[in-house]
Write a structure and sequence with these properties.
Length: 321
């Protein structure tokens, strides 16, 4: 039987990846967002459960990876900081490599917050900008409808002006309507971080909403070439062969303790594979779990399993692989 190295590696229990929806509330209402914001901050018993899962597994791990996701994770920064510092400490104690990233809209990522995050071990960030000011503000505004570009852009510049050794992906969600604006952004706004190896760029079509269609995906290549000319290093390809959701040791933990595999199909029944308990037990539906693992070669396992028309496992603010 032919397999690929992703699948073999995904089965090792020496790695554990937990994607934590630390709050499901958001201070933005992006026009293309798929979330329903029904849940709030992660329940204290769920956070306790996450720590107990890690305690149970830590002795056998080489790598622990925590991804803070939402909603907007910085609306619950107290729990992010506490949990990341706790995880960094326990990893140090057991000589385990600790990787920690955050998908944030960047609006609350000021200098004080950034310093605290870095010191708690959050070293990798994904922040979305959808073009120049006008186009970005049309797509990504606050809950009250206020513009967000200036504040996010100045926070990114602040990050670039520090000496910290972080990694930041700036993501652009592309539709026909903002293509030219993204191009202008790369030409006119990207120079403060274009040749900075800590920054990379990721272009991704918006999906799930025909209003924001990208009719010609070759345009992504055009943007990628432009970004390379401007000095950005290569980034993850738009279409990967495998997805984190098919990794046997990757779990999404919802704010209410539900265990899922994918950060996009949040309401699909097949994605609800179990529930975390306060003592760190993970009650998993094995039949559903197996379906995700054996869909590793389907590109986007979520699309395959739900028959929904999603062209990739990453959503509007979705987790990069
Ligand atoms: S896409 Fe992200 S930042 Fe925008 S409303 Fe949804 S969760 Fe919030």
């Amino acid at each position: 039987m032919e397999t690929n190295s992703f699948w073999i590696n995904s089965l090792t229990n020496k790695q554990l990846e937990l994607i934590l929806l630390i709050t499901e509330q958001c201070n933005f209402r992006c026009t293309y967002c798929y979330e329903d914001f029904k849940l709030g901050k992660m329940a204290p018993y769920v956070i306790e459960g996450v720590k107990n899962v890690i305690k149970k597994r830590i002795a056998g791990l080489d790598i622990l990876s925590l991804s803070f996701f939402g909603g907007e994770p910085l609306l619950n920064k107290e729990n992010v900081l506490e949990l990341s510092q706790w995880a960094a400490d326990i990893c140090k104690e057991h000589d385990v490599k600790y990787l920690c990233d955050m998908t944030t809209n960047g609006y609350m990522l000021n200098e004080i917050v950034f310093e605290k995050l870095i010191h708690s071990g959050v070293m990798s960030y994904q922040i979305t900008l959808d073009g120049e000011k006008q186009s970005h503000n049309e797509f990504r505004h606050t809950l009250k409808g206020e513009p967000t570009f200036d504040r996010i852009y100045s926070n990114i510049i602040m990050m670039a002006n520090t000496k910290h050794n972080f990694y930041c992906t700036i993501r652009f969600n592309i539709a026909d309507s903002n293509f030219n604006s993204v191009k202008s952004f790369i030409n006119n706004y990207s120079s403060p971080f274009a040749n900075d190896k800590r920054f990379s760029i990721h272009f991704h079509p918006i999906f799930g909403n025909s209003e924001f269609k990208l009719t010609n995906e070759d345009k992504l290549q055009e943007l990628k070439k432009l970004a390379q000319i401007k000095g950005f290093k290569n980034d993850i390809p738009y279409k990967n062969s495998s997805c984190y959701a098919s990794n046997a040791n990757s779990f999404v933990i919802r704010a209410d303790g539900r265990i899922q595999k994918c950060t996009v199909s949040l309401e699909s029944d097949i994605n609800n594979i179990g529930k975390i308990q306060k003592d760190g037990s993970m009650c998993i539906n094995e039949e559903k779990f197996k379906k995700w693992i054996f869909a590793y070669d389907k590109g986007c396992p979520s699309s395959f399993l739900t028959n929904e028309k999603q062209n990739t496992p990453t959503g509007p603010a979705g987790k990069s692989q």
